Backbone:
């Protein structure tokens, strides 16, 4: 009963909600970035679930590409955070407000 | 209860519990390690869905490479002294209400709605079928080099661009003195 399509989708949706909660709540940019990764992984879980229950390969291949792109994205994003920390000496999002008027 | 159901509950609660603790933990290093734990749970769910290759990738790439990179950066930046500030009241209220709305919406849509029929997991009829569900790495290789050849090349080029971009970004912006005349 538990290993049905709906159960996996509920887990994926709840994980996405938790990641969204973290993005809104936390002010440390690194933790926000980790929560973004959690949201990305939740969408991966939904894709694999639909792929398995449809018995097609496209969802799984899509997850393969998402994992690759996410690895590249994490590398670039962390390099940006390090460059930002060098310039501003802070990773708290409410101290990085130079673009506000 | 049979074994897959027990394992499903175990891995799902591991994933969700670790994910919630990531948000609530004060220490950034602890948060990174809890993300690793959550990814291990996701990998277990992938195994229950017969996606063995993706489960291995999830452990190797996400829990291995990506989160180790995160831990490196967290320890390099030494951000612990500023992470004890409590969130503002308005962001607390907004985020908790957003979480409640999403949880209630997900639970209502997927548990109560009759429009989505509850499908049972069908057995893999042909595990090595050319374009069926790719349980093994062999099926992945077949699909990657036939139907998805262009995306594969594009992703390879994207990784190259990311590498060059990271080198450019992390290069020190201060002008180093030209060593050529002294070293001659």
Residues:
């Amino acid at each position: 009963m538990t290993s049905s399509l709906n159960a996996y989708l509920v887990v994926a949706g709840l994980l996405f909600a938790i990641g969204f909660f973290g993005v809104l709540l936390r002010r440390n940019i690194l933790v926000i970035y980790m929560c973004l990764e959690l949201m990305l992984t939740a969408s991966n879980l939904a894709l694999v679930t639909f792929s398995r229950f449809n018995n097609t390969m496209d969802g799984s291949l899509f997850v393969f590409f998402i994992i690759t792109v996410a690895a590249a994205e994490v590398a670039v994003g962390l390099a940006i955070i390090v460059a930002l920390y060098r310039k501003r000496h802070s990773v708290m999002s409410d101290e990085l407000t130079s673009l506000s008027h | 209860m049979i074994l897959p159901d027990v394992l499903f509950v175990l891995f799902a609660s591991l994933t969700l519990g670790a994910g919630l603790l990531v948000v609530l933990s004060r220490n950034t290093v602890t948060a990174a390690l809890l993300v690793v734990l959550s990814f291990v749970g996701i990998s277990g769910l992938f195994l229950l869905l017969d996606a063995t290759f993706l489960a291995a990738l999830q452990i190797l790439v996400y829990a291995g490479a990506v989160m180790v990179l995160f831990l490196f950066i967290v320890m390099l930046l030494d951000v612990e002294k500023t992470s004890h500030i409590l969130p503002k009241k308005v962001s607390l209220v907004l985020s908790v209400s957003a979480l409640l709305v999403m949880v209630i919406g997900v639970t209502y849509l997927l548990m109560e709605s009759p429009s989505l029929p509850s499908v049972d997991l069908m057995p893999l009829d042909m595990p090595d079928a050319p374009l069926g569900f790719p349980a093994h790495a062999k099926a992945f290789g077949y699909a990657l080099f036939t139907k998805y050849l262009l995306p594969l090349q594009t992703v390879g080029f994207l990784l190259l661009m990311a590498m060059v971009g990271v080198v450019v970004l992390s290069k020190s912006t201060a002008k180093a003195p030209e060593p050529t005349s002294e070293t001659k």
Remarks:
- Chain B touches chain A through 85 residues (CB under 8 Å).
- The domain at 1-83 of chain B is CATH 1.20.120.1200 (Four Helix Bundle (Hemerythrin (Met), subunit A)).
